[in-house]
UniProtKB/TrEMBL annotation:
InterPro entries: PsdUridine_synth_cat_dom_sf (IPR020103), PsdUridine_synth_RluA-like_CS (IPR006224), PsdUridine_synth_RsuA/RluA (IPR006145), RluA_PseudoU_synthase (IPR050188). Coiled coil: none annotated. It comes from Helicobacter brantae. GO terms for biological process: enzyme-directed rRNA pseudouridine synthesis. This is RNA pseudouridylate synthase. It catalyses: a uridine in RNA = a pseudouridine in RNA. Keywords: Isomerase. CDD domains: PseudoU_synth_RluA_like (cd02869).
Length: 299
């Protein structure tokens, strides 16, 4: 179970954040995040940043469960996983849903972290750091567009022309509830600059396999951009479908037959196909096959 609650008895009064740092072997920032979330309590009351603790306390914290996932590349600095569809990147709240962090932290320790994220529905390559030092360096590469990410998507209809979709995106407001359609990004002049390069690769029956390269990084960018040109990704439960079906997806776990009926496929047909970057003097280029019913869509 990703999150557990434990009871401790503190014999000598001490600052709460210092006790957390020693107990969980975490940084001060991480300790303060735990306190901000109200995960350290005494007699049912949350302990605040500046408080000292003594006596019996309860702590809720992330404890990774053993989970084996395929590793595409492992170095002393980072590891690249091939994430399956329907797996969260990070644990969600304090629920018991498994996430990629279970596999990462159980194998490489609590200081290991994903450097970016993939939507739960999206499969493919996900880059993770081994420790905090490499995490900040790798995140800096993403922030300065020095890591090239390429996706494969199966979209509805016959898309023929290579193009760059250049439409600003307004991302969901902070605190938007998962059960609410407000979690969808929207195209808006008030949004942030967003571009996606689209290259058709193969025409299939009533669909097209495309390569999508995001030139910016906005929430649901590829999904929204492809939907905006009339070619939504097959299996997308949020974009390119009726609101009532999207709401049904958000409110309950739909079976494969319902998903295929509502959204055109049993899963979101979006796959993080390749990563290309340089790090500490070495060049890296990795890819992962996009499998549909265990068959690669690219020979």
């Amino acid at each position: 179970m990703p999150f557990i609650t434990q009871r401790f008895f503190i014999q000598e009064e001490q600052k709460a954040f210092l006790w957390l740092m020693r107990t969980l072997h975490c940084t001060q920032k991480e300790a303060q995040k735990i306190l901000d979330k109200g995960w350290l309590t005494q007699e049912g009351q949350a302990i605040h940043k500046s408080q000292s603790i003594c006596g019996e306390i309860s702590l809720t914290h992330f404890s990774p469960s053993p989970l084996k996932l395929p590793i595409v590349l492992q170095t002393p600095y980072f590891v690249i996983y091939d994430k399956p569809a329907f797996l969260l990147t990070h644990p969600k709240g304090t629920f018991s849903h498994p996430s990629l962090c279970d596999a990462l932290k159980s194998e490489f320790g609590l200081q290991a972290n994903p450097v970016h994220r993939l939507d739960k529905e999206t499969s493919g390559l996900l880059l993770c750091s081994i420790n905090k030092t490499y995490e900040s360096q790798l995140k800096a590469l993403f922030e300065t567009s020095q890591i090239q990410k390429t996706y494969l998507a199966l979209v509805r209809g016959n898309l023929k022309e290579e193009q760059i979709i250049d439409s600003p995106i307004l991302t969901p407001p902070k605190g938007a509830k998962h059960s609410n359609l407000q979690i969808r990004s929207t195209l808006s002049p008030q949004g942030k600059n967003a571009q996606t390069h689209i290259l058709p690769l193969k025409s299939l029956k009533d669909s097209t396999l495309v390569q999508a390269t995001p030139l910016t990084g906005r929430t649901h960018q590829i999904r929204l951009h492809l939907c905006s040109i009339g070619h939504p990704i097959l299996g997308d439960p949020l974009y390119g479908c009726e609101d009532k079906f999207a709401q049904a997806y958000l409110e309950s776990d739909l079976g494969e037959e319902q998903r295929e009926s509502y959204f055109g496929a049993k899963r979101l047909m979006l796959h993080a196909y390749s990563l290309k970057f340089s790090f500490l003097g070495e060049n890296y280029e990795v890819s992962s096959p996009f499998l549909i019913d265990n068959i690669s869509v690219i020979p």
